[in-house]
Amino acid sequence: MSLIDPSDSTFVIWFTGISGAGKSTIALVVEERLREGGFAVHNLDGDALRHGLNRDLGFSDADRVENIRRVGELARLFNHVGMIVLVAAISPFRAGRDAARELAGPGRFVEVHVDTPLEVAEERDVKGLYKRARSGQLPNFTGIDSPYEAPLHPEVHIDSSFESAEDAADEVFRVLLEMGLVSS
Question: How many domains does the chain have?
Fold first, then answer.
């Protein structure tokens, strides 16, 4: 009997972008399509992790780095038990995303930059976060008074100001096919 490492067929899709860009919405569409295709998949949403695993962290640069480090480690653990992992998190610093890429392993990390202009994200502000940040109630808010370092070479770049979540998911799957991570 030979044992197969389940992580050999797993990967991480990391959705990054400012608050309100559409990361979670697109990740949910991709998750649904992967499940329909018979894949074992888990979706790690940054907001949910902030209310649970990472509730002890604030929004200083150091806490943001630790937040993403933990998420990257968690994604790696899910990969090791045979699951494809989707991460939808602002993850504002390139170094943190690069560290998560390294944990996933060569050819097993798909960075998806869900890009949208700040003014569009503010218009979508269903949680009222931008309004609170602009009034000074939410210090260190990404895009307002804390930086967001956009990816330099993401595998997928989506302009969510005009692209639907379904079209964005199509683009993600096109890249997954090109990378040999899924087959048609």
Answer: 1
Bridge-based pairing of strands 156-159 and 84-88 is unpaired
Q: Annotated catalytic residue: which of 7, 19, 24, 91?
A: 91
Domain carrying residue 96: 6-178
Give the global pTM.
Answer: 0.93
Nearest by Cα to 88 from 153, 149, 13, 33 = 13
**74-122: per-residue pLDDT in tens?**
999 999 999 999 999 999 999 999 999 999 999 999 999 999 999 999 9
Is residue 103 in some structural domain? Answer: yes
What tens digit of pLDDT does each residue of 128-166 get?
889 998 998 988 889 888 899 999 999 999 999 999 999
CA–CA gap between residue 76 and residue 127 (Å, rounded): 30
Q: Please report, as a single letter, which amino acid is at residue 90.
A: I
Q: Which amino acid is at 106?
A: P
Q: Does 91 qualify as catalytic in the annotation?
A: yes
**Token digits of residue 176:** 């997954």
